[in-house]
Amino acid sequence: MEYTSITAEQLTDRPDPHTVTDSRTVYDGAIWDVCSESFRMADQEEPLTREFITHPGAVSVVVLDQHERILLINQYRHPVRKRMWEIPAGLLDVSEEPALKAAQRELGEEADLTARTWHTLVDFDNSPGSSAEANRIFLARDLGEVPESERFEREGEEAEIVAGFADLDDALAAVMAGRITSPTATLGILATHIARSRDWTTLRAPDAEWTSRPRHEG
Questions:
Q1: Catalytic annotation on 209?
Q2: Integer distance in angstroms from the first to the last C-alpha of the chain?
Q3: I need a labelling partner for 155 at 20 to 30 A (CA). Which of 4, 13, 148, 215 fits?
Q4: Could you state, in chain order, the average pLDDT of each consecutive group of 10 residues for the chain (218 residues)?
Q5: Catalytic choice (145, 158, 160, 217)
Q6: CA angle at residue 125 from 124 to 128, to 5 degrees?
Q7: Cα(35)–Cα(147) distance, rounded to whole angstroms?
Q8: Is the pTM higher than 0.85?
Q9: 166, 78 in Cβ contact below 8 A?
Q10: Cα Rg, the chain, nearest whole Å
């Protein structure tokens, strides 16, 4: 393999659709499916086949109070048998719902909070080798409370959510020590710490372009 210098302008993930020769759903799930697709790489005669999770995408929210403390919620996650410190998050499972509106809805449903100031903090593809899930993390500030009469009745795992505000530096230390491992919380905490150190100049508009949002029709 030969190595070249990569310029700042080249540091952009870009769409690169390949010709799909076969696509079928091999598992039809309640929230997402597993798709098997065959596709051709350049200069290869035989197609490759990959199975992956289709996914509507998700949004997450880093919430900072007036003291720049971060809101963390503690929730049970059965696949890993852990109660994990996370940030509010949810699926983009409402048709045509803008990502910002979904984030605002999830903040109210999971934390009984509203926010007046919103920015795009960071985007990521959760596990691009095995899932189509794209996630946008927002930064929410200038908080208010959802009126008690309008609060969402949480069910399932969400019924046991415990929430609180933590010092951002303490949260960063927990990430670096491996004590917080949720991907959205980890990335959100790291990105927020960096953004604060740069006087919030890295923040993007809340409706910034998001080309990774899944539109798979498998």
A1: no
A2: 34
A3: 215
A4: 92 86 92 90 86 92 97 92 95 89 94 96 93 95 88 68 94 98 97 98 96 59
A5: 158
A6: 155
A7: 42
A8: yes
A9: no
A10: 19
